[in-house]
Amino acid sequence: MGVTERVSDHAPTARPAGDQNDTLRIIGAGHSPRAEVFAVPLGRHVRARLFVRRLRIDAQIGVHTHEKGRTQGVMVDLEFGLPDEMAFHTDRIGDAIDYVDVVARLRALAVERHYDLVESLAETMAGMLQREFGVPWLQLSLAKVAPFPGAEVGVVIERGQRA
């Protein structure tokens, strides 16, 4: 198993931590001690995004009396920036945001309480993603499926800084 370490190729006082010149070295197992397999630049801006599209979720949602006490379908489209790009280089799930966990948390939030408005459910989901998964930027679209024949009604929100 390899070792990952963050190193800087400049003097500690030359630039603040997190500068564009910081790198991530992936040290491979079976190589001589501290043999560098490759170095990955760690810039300040996230350039990679993950998406989940057309995720159907049952949600406790709706302001009208006939919508209370039951679930109805909502559709979620989600795109979010990654905190770093390590997973692209290490191929390890521990270095990635696992979309299985993301989907499970979205499903749980949608039924843990009743939401009157799609805006409220979308904001709750966005806040959870930023807090629990360290997502620096996201765009989330949430629509009620067929609240009117042949139509979807929903909201699109964007949170954080897009790189």
Structural account:
The chain is an alpha+beta fold. The protein folds into 2 domains: 3-41, no CATH class; 49-160, GTP Cyclohydrolase I, domain 2 (2-Layer Sandwich), CATH 3.30.1130. The protein has helices spanning 86-90, 99-112, 118-133; strands at 3-8, 22-27, 36-41, 49-59, 72-81, 137-148, 151-160. The chain has a 4-stranded antiparallel beta sheet, covered by helices on one side. A hairpin with a 2-residue loop joins strand 6 (137-148) and strand 7 (151-160). It is elongated and about 50 Å long. The two termini are 32 Å apart. The relative contact order is 0.16.
Secondary structure: elements and pairs:
Elements: E1 3-8, E2 22-27, E3 36-41, E4 49-59, E5 72-81, H1 86-90, H2 99-112, H3 118-133, E6 137-148, E7 151-160
Antiparallel strand pairs: 1-2, 2-3, 4-5, 5-6, 6-7
Give the spatial strand order of the biggest sheet. Answer: 4-5-6-7
CATH class call of the largest domain: Alpha Beta
Instruction: Give the CA-CA distance, first to last residue.
Output: 32 Å
| Rg for CA atoms | 21 Å
- How much strand? 35-45%
Report a brief summary of the structure.
This protein is α+β, with helices and mostly antiparallel strands and 163 residues long. The protein is 21% helix and 37% strand. It starts with a strand and ends with a strand.
Question: What are the defining features of this structure?
Answer:
163 residues; alpha+beta; 3 helices; 7 strands; 21% helix; elongated
